[in-house]
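User: ok so my PI wants both of these folded by tonight, can you help

Assistant: No problem, let's get them done. Here's the first:
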Amino acid sequence: LEQEKHELVSASELAKTYNLSATTIRDKLVAINQGTGGKHMYNPELARQILTRNESNKRGRKRAN
């Protein structure tokens, strides 16, 4: 069986793409880090799924128009 080799992207490249800071990218994607502690590399597809997830916590009742 052949394993596909994934292109990995750095935290700074993802920061430019998603308009977030590199430290925010590192904090959110700590589970899928494939690099070392100083070199943070991520699979772009998994990163897209995690970063585009809507994590807003809505509280209270809906607004009455």
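One down. Here's the second:
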Amino acid sequence: MKRFLQSRHTRFWRNIQQTGRWLTPGLGVKRWFGLLLAGVTLLGVGLAIFLLDLYRTAPEIEWYINLLATASLRFLPRPVRVLIFGGLGISLILWGIWGINRSVLLPFLRPGSKVVDQLAEYRRRERGPRVVAIGGGHGLATLLRGLKEHTHNLTAVVSVADDGGSSGELRRSLGILPPGDIRNCLAALSKDEDLLTQLFQYRFSGTPGLDGHSFGNLFITALSEITGSFEEAVAESGRVLSVYGRVLPATLHDVQLVADVQIPHLTMEVRIAGESRIPEFAGRVRRVWLQPDSPPAFPPVIQAILAADVLVIGPGSLYTSIVPNLLVPDLRAAVRASRALKIFVCNIVTQPGETQNYTCRDHIEALEEYIGKGVIDITICNDVYTPDIPPERWVRVDEELLGNSRLYCADLADKSHPWRHDPAKLAQVIMDLYYERTGPLSERALKV
């Protein structure tokens, strides 16, 4: 009992100390607390005038009535005095609340924005649909960069089959999962993307032992050593960078991507081991699989997929970024079982060594080989082709697919980089399709 009382006494004084920190000089809130106190006092005086004048015959409070009446403009009628003190008190209270909110939120406001507008925008995104994006590479980062403007309930599922560049070297030397694609997604989901993208994408050059490595890869690797696990390092990176949503690896197992590639003008197939080596062979990919086979999925990934409102597959390298995620049996089964709106985002241009001469239909058929037919609800494809890119590089829409209700075509290309998706255009199309499927309630209604 004594220990319990001591604990309560300690917590009480600790709360007092924490409350007292609001009076620290330089915070800019003491003046607003003073206004609040003055407003409450004046409001109480106005209420007291109203009540005490009703009970003037009570002798035990006659002295207080005389004092209050003298100090509260007794020569004025009672309704006028009540309105003066009550109105002034309410005004000071509202002014104090406004000042406290502005002082507390000012460090987090974007220049030129208003508190109420930013708060309303934040709440709208907080109530946005639960979106799970599956893929890898720069395509997934582009998608996330656009989606974070519509919802904060984002989960990016990233392939861990990458074995090239800085990620591959760290993977071979330290035995961790490749951090490259995860780094790109964290940078895309961060609040201060401009600065963090430059920092995380910065590559050391000319420094022995660091040449070719990016800062973001080293950062995640260091956190893996500190926290003791790769998944915890990714989670802590998200907290440090204040990202909207979360980034999850498809599996925590060390897997390698293997492919059978048909070499042009030859009747034989070549077996290639390693995600980074597959695009180097100018052939047609016949089949890809993981070694070891059937790795278990990361459990939070399964939970996110089953709870999702929208499930987006792509964009990204078809065989080396998208399909490796679907080669995880549990993840593939969760995608099939999910009741979310399933959307496949087709690439804008073909990729040499993977999807050369592929059309939109070829992309869909290749994906269905691994996920099954009829799983995808809608395929989004670009249908605006500019002369900036050779005609044979475009992923064109097949004529037999035109008019198909499961195909949605739009102008999705980035004007400055027409071989990439425009993040804002792509995200807006996905949100429009979702709200169209969920009923008459549109996103504009949610904004209001």
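The first strand starts at residue 131 and ends at 135. Residues 440-448 have pLDDT under 50 and may be disordered. Good luck tonight!
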